[in-house]
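Objective 1b of the project was to move from sequence-level analysis to a structural picture of ligand recognition. The entry below was assembled by the postdoctoral researcher (A.K.) and checked by the PI before modelling. It contains the amino acid sequence of the target and the SMILES of the bound compound, magnesium ion.
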Amino acid sequence: MDKNFNYSTLKLGIIGGGQLGKIISQKAKKMGFHVTILDPTFNCPAAQVSDKQIVGGFYDAEKLEQLVQESDVTTFEIEHVDTGILKKLYDHGHQIHPSPYLIELIQNKYAQKKLLAEQGIPVPRYKDIETEEDLSAFGFPVIQKAKREGYDGKGVMLLRSEADLQNRIQTDSFIEEMVDIDKELAILVARNSQDEIKCYPIVEMLFDERVNICDIVMAPARLTEEIEQKIVDISVASIRALDGVGIFGVELFLTKKGEILVNEIAPRPHNSGHYTVEACATSQFEQIIRAVTNLPLGSTKLISPAVMVNLLGEEGYEGEPIVEGIHDALKIPELSYHFYGKSFTKPFRKMGHITVLDDHVDDALKKATEAKNIIKIKGSKKV
Ligand SMILES: Nc1ncnc2c1ncn2[C@@H]1O[C@H](COP(=O)(O)OP(=O)(O)OP(=O)(O)O)[C@@H](O)[C@H]1O
Ligand SMILES: [Mg+2]
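Corresponding predicted holo structure:
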């Protein structure tokens, strides 16, 4: 997209129509762009706020091609897609960012880790699994990960002892040393094709222990300046190593010994960056649009400390979602409520989120925890 491009007619294509695609689309509409969503679910969250939906799966080459042909630039809210057709279109000069070659690399967690390690980025010790004996190569406990298709902790298995080998993941996998984690951190890095790079504040991710889903994000993370600088340097080096254009969620571990290790990189907006909608000068969702349409990146300044809480489907329910407690929760000051418009809830499904601002992140955490205890996403059927 060169300087003479008329941005008033820009057509943006988004592969994936969940909550990430929805908020990207809302920001794109703010900027006056035309948005088309590709998603298999008719009237998915993003389609509800977009100009057009192509109903099709992420491995449907014909539908992917249609989206790219109809769009000036195509981007992703999900990395689990068929890259074959996208690579062909990219090679023919279509604007697809991040490049499908990078998406393909990131789809394979093992290949991703290997490339980062080869570029000198610190990652947990890891080893490919070729034979069953390889699973015991680091002793126990050890983390086994599926190379492909993992998300929200699915595809990650803690093997505590040899006895757990019977529960091992059966698909193509690798092992990782079990890191002694002090904090789980994340940072969003945006980069455009001019190599302009901007980092957001580092955040702390807290997890729902039952299912290993990140459910609370605190911005900013409580860290020393020295550690913050190291994380920024490592994360920028990672995105340069990948030659990524777009926005990237870099997930990191701070170990109890004070080491920083990169866990994995998401090539799209990230759950840990939802807080940027209310708390930063430019949200991650506007930033990805700027990055992939070759516009200058916006300021990532933190306007206020913030805590984000995911609203997950309650255990024991599924079906049409029913929101409880909204009248009491929304009395909490500086709280912003997001509900994605998914027509079906199930236990631990991401149905919405809330972001709470305060002058101090610990006070924001108190208010957010209060709200989390009040709002419940139940369903029309008990399971
Ligand atoms: N090497 C490790 N040592 C200790 N804990 C780990 C390790 N790798 C992963 N974990 C734990 O498992 C969680 C999920 O791992 P990972 O991010 O690789 O999987 P995922 O399915 O992609 O999850 P998500 O979609 O939530 O990012 C991590 O956030 C962390 O809590
Ligand atoms: Mg992860």
